Amino acid sequence: MAEFVAQLDSINALADSSAGFVWRLTDEDPNDPGVKALGAGMLINLSVWLDPASLAEFVFRSAHAGVMRRRRDWFIPQLEPYVVLWWVAAGDVPSIAESARRLELLRSKGPSAGGFTLRSLFPPPGDAACGSSVTK
């Protein structure tokens, strides 16, 4: 994991400066109920993006893509979804607990307006919305 961890600062800085980036979680409380709901040893990456296209540009067409290609070197393959997106009102900051609930919704019911993926997008509920994702 040392190789993965060594890249975190530069990849986070890249996200912070990417077009469409709005916000990301920088400190997580290990006692947060949402952290506990996601399970021990899980990496949490919670961020807000202006739209899915901006997120996809960062994830698949920046240096982040190289990290994604090597994720199997560092992480156990997951059989169920580990990334969830949903729309949040402009200015809102999602919580880890909310992201855990939405990930569980995606896992149990499949893609819906309450939780979806980049491959199964749902339209925003109104004009003033941002996309949000959590990675487990």
Report the order of strands and helices: HEHEHHHEHE
Strand order of the largest sheet: 1-2-4-3
In the predicted model, the low-confidence regions spanning at least 5 consecutive residues are: none
Discrete helix count: 6
Total beta strand runs: 4
Span between termini: 16 Å
Average pLDDT taken over every residue: 86
User: In which range does the helix fraction lie?
Assistant: 40-55%
What is the count of structural domains? 1
Tell me, what's the shape?
Answer: globular
Structural class: alpha+beta
Main sheet? 4 strands, antiparallel
Rg, alpha carbons: 14 Å
Brief synopsis:
Helices cover 40% and strands 17% of the residues. It is an alpha+beta fold and 136 residues long.
Protein architecture, described:
With 136 residues, this protein is α+β, with helices and mostly antiparallel strands. The chain has one domain. The protein is 40% helix and 17% strand. It is built from six helices and four strands; from the N terminus they run αβαβαααβαβ. It starts with a helix and ends with a strand. The model has no long low-confidence stretch (mean pLDDT 86).
Output the keywords.
alpha+beta, 4 strands, 17% strand
Outline the fold blueprint.
Elements: H1 2-16, E1 21-24, H2 33-38, E2 45-49, H3 52-61, H4 64-69, H5 71-74, E3 83-89, H6 96-109, E4 129-135
Antiparallel strand pairs: 1-2, 2-4, 3-4
